[in-house]
Amino acid sequence: MKVYQGVALALEILVLYIKMTLTWFHCLYQFFVPQEPKSVSGEIILITGAGHGMGRETAMRFARLGGIIVCVDINPAGNQETVDMIKENKGKAHRYECDVTDRDAVNALAEKIRREVGEVTMLVNNAGIMPCKPLLQQSVKEIRSTFDVNILAHLWLLQAFLPSMMERNHGHIVAMSSMAGVVGLRNLVPYCATKFAVKGLMEALHEELREDPRDFSGIKFTVIYPYIVDTGLCKNPKIKFPSLMKILTPQEASDSIVDAVRRNYFEITIPSSLYYINTICRLFPRAVPIYLKDFLDSGLEAHT
């Protein structure tokens, strides 16, 4: 019996090794030969924070590709501007105002969208806020608001729109994290905590659906980790080498976001080089990459 169990275990390990090796080569192949971008024509794409910045630019790009855009923002004026810009370019867009931190309001919004537009097939959790000051100077209200907008709203929207995706085994969840979700930065302690949480949320949700006995392989996930983007949130950026780590425009960031979604990438950094730099640095003892971080000397100064 012990011999049989030993042989069985050895075979399982061999199969595991073969699977991991083949998958590694497949991923390497896809790195050099990316898969063709998928069509988003006819997809109903809900984007939070669509009234400005990356939300607006991403909405406009998906609309140009034939997506039906559901613009959600708490700011009516900015939201309407986005809808008008999409329609001026012959795109399809609908405007809804909602406080995404209010679970009841999100559920009511979901029902209204189902009646007036249809079932959402792509959810882009983009809305976010970024108080920038030392932790001990942040008020209770600022900290709670950061968590409400940056992470809890993701959960309320997922609970509202994921079930219909699961019923059809079709959908795409996009979550906006940040490089502050993979590297801790001063003046952004609560913000970093929420963006690290977004990473964990998406990884855990992916595993929850992957390990479910039902087939949910048609639901894709993409996590975005942008560096500093000029959306108005970063008021006092600190960059030692602007040519190496330049501030991105919302247009540049949105181009990368849309491309990543269409290619079903699970995660990307913007710019893409930061993904590999961070991965390599994580292989070293923690004290080693701190020297690189100090050398690059970039981040955000406290807002006044």
Automatic annotation (TrEMBL):
MF terms (GO), sorted A to Z: all-trans-retinol dehydrogenase (NADP+) activity
Q: Name one Pfam family in it.
A: adh_short
What are the entry keywords?
Answer: Lipid metabolism, Membrane, NADP, Oxidoreductase, Transmembrane, Transmembrane helix
Query: For this UniProt entry, what is the primary localization, expressed as one broad class?
Result: membrane
Q: How does it sit in the membrane?
A: Multi-pass membrane protein
**What InterPro entries has UniProt attached to this entry?**
NAD(P)-bd_dom_sf, Sc_DH/Rdtase_CS, SDR_fam
Q: Where in the cell is it found?
A: Membrane
Q: Which residues cross the membrane?
A: 7-32
Q: Which Gene3D superfamilies match?
A: NAD(P)-binding Rossmann-like Domain
Q: What domain of life does the native source organism fall in?
A: Eukaryota
Its cellular-component GO annotations read: lipid droplet; membrane
Similarity remark: Belongs to the short-chain dehydrogenases/reductases (SDR) family.
| Xref: PANTHER family | PKSB (PTHR24322), RETINOL DEHYDROGENASE 10 (PTHR24322:SF736)
Briefly state the protein's biological role: Catalyzes the reduction of all-trans-retinal to all-trans-retinol in the presence of NADPH.
Name of the protein this chain belongs to: Short-chain dehydrogenase/reductase 3
What is the species listed in this Swiss-Prot or TrEMBL entry? Manduca sexta (Tobacco hawkmoth)
